[in-house]
Amino acid sequence: MTDPASAAATPDATLDNAPGSAPGRAPVLEVRDLTVSFRVDDGRAPDVAAVRGVSFDVLPGEVLAIVGESGSGKSVSSLALLGLLGRHAVVGGSARLGGPGQEPVELIGLDRRALQDVRGRRVAMVFQDSSGALDPVFTVGFQLDEMLRRHAPDLSRAQRRDRAVELLSMVELPDPAQRLRFYPHQLSGGQAQRVMIAMALACDPEVLLADEPTTALDVTVQREVLDVLRRLRERVSTSIVLITHDMGVVADLADRVVVMRAGEVVETAPVRQLFDAPRAAYTRELLAAVPRVGTHERPSGATESARPALAFDELVVEYRDRRGRAVRAVDGVTLSVRPGEIVALVGESGSGKSSMGRCALGLAPVTSGTVEVVGTRPGHDSPRTVRAARSRVGVVFQNPAASLNPRYSIGESVAEPLLVHAGLRGAELERRTAELLESVELPAAWVSRYPHELSGGQLQRVSIARAISLGPDLLIADEPTSALDVSVQATVLDVFREVQRSLGFACLFISHDLAVVDELADRVAVLHQGRLVEAGERTRVLGSPEQDYTRRLLAAAPVPDPAEQATRRATARS
């Protein structure tokens, strides 16, 4: 046995001295000294090393979480196991797959035909973006049938259909037989993710690789998907490798945790040990960056004003479905945002929060009621007046990579509003652009870089710089940090707070992350099925909610504490 003292001294010391291994049981997947580098096309520059000597074990029936910042190598490691990195990747080391009763297979270096036989049948993957991973032109039933035809050719057509219904039932999708006829666009985000899990489990794989399976899902849908994964582990023998940056999800689901940074493993530990007594300094930094719902005392930045920066009065927004029937997205909401104030709009997907944001920007129809934006009423005031007011409204979208023009340098993206609306040119435009980049803690010398050269957090800071370039009176921020890892998110929130404090703009902050809302907002408004169910000061709404729906939202959000999560689950079951 390993001496306890030496194990404590060496973070990854284990029974066989292999970093990341776990004593007591034979692993179903044994990764040793995994390396991944990417060749540079011109051949003159050295290869880019993404993963450096990563080792870990996955035990039968275990949930192993791999966590770390963007660029830490966690997703690259999982894709390398299945040969999904493309021709520029150079993969080394060993990844030995060998579950009970199965012939061991070395995945690294496996030829293409043999690797295709392993994918889906013995090792399956659930990707982050279910809407992108599912084929939009085929039904759910066809795509499940295709998986079974490929890996279970002995099954008859009727048997494949029965198995498809069984799989959708296993992931707790309602009306599974009927859902086989649905196309991906007819499913919600949570339902599409369940279909992805069902496809991955079609052939009873030994290992399920889940890459950010709950990122960008609202808290209640995320809770449902985590419940599905938890119950699946109890019913089937599949081991789960959970790749995530959400430490609340890790606390809720994982048995052991591998922490990666810059392509290397810095710590491996059982989940409770990792949260209670992290040994690596980086792990402590990562946990410290996790936002938590509490009652942070801070003064409001709101100023008393006779006129709010944004006001909705009995707002109703309706859309038409394919049959021409009216679908009400927002139902009689009255809400205002004062100058200098941050009001968070929270609720599940489909609650109407993004529709309200689009109304404020003039991008969604107003069926009835009114919207007043920085003193103007779109649809009532003259188009010239409305256009002039729009230069006083900034917007930060959820996906900065999609909202920034890939053909523009970041300097050109930030400078564009100044060029178009303020008429700045030459040295004055360059000076102001440099100031804006520095205000969001990016080097002014980066003006010539392009979006693909920046990380997600850096891109979001560019989006903030562009949004504040004209000194807006109002900023609309729609899920600006939902896809960012915790440390990058913390940096972006710090930048956002500092910029808002400096400029004093009003902000409608749309989010499903209640911990982020608690870090940032002055007031909170809760939407449910298009209706405003509760609104008030942040400390009151999040600390002592009056409505059952608000309490359910708070209960659904996982907290970065395994003991508390276990208590909450036990309470929910009783």
Overview of the molecule:
The protein is α/β, with parallel strands linked by helices and 574 residues long. The protein has 4 domains: 18-122 and 207-288, 3-Layer(aba) Sandwich (Rossmann fold), CATH 3.40.50; 129-202, no CATH class; 310-392 and 474-543, Rossmann fold (3-Layer(aba) Sandwich), CATH 3.40.50.300; 402-469, no CATH class. It is 38% helix and 22% strand. The protein contains 23 helices and 19 strands. The strands form 4 sheets. A 6-stranded mixed beta sheet has the order 6-7-8-3-9-10, sandwiched between helices. Strands 15-16-17-13-18-19 form a 6-stranded mixed beta sheet, with helices on both faces. Strands 2-1-4-5 form a 4-stranded antiparallel beta sheet, with helices on one face. Strand 9 (256-261) and strand 10 form a beta hairpin. Helix 8 runs parallel beside helix 9 and helix 9 (219-235) crosses helix 22 (548-556). It is globular, with a radius of gyration of 25 Å. The model is unreliable at 1-19 (pLDDT under 50).
Major beta sheet summary: 6 strands, mixed
Which structural category do the helix and sheet elements fall into? alpha/beta
Query: Rough shape?
Result: globular
Q: What is the CATH architecture descriptor of the largest domain? A: 3-Layer(aba) Sandwich
Number of helices: 23
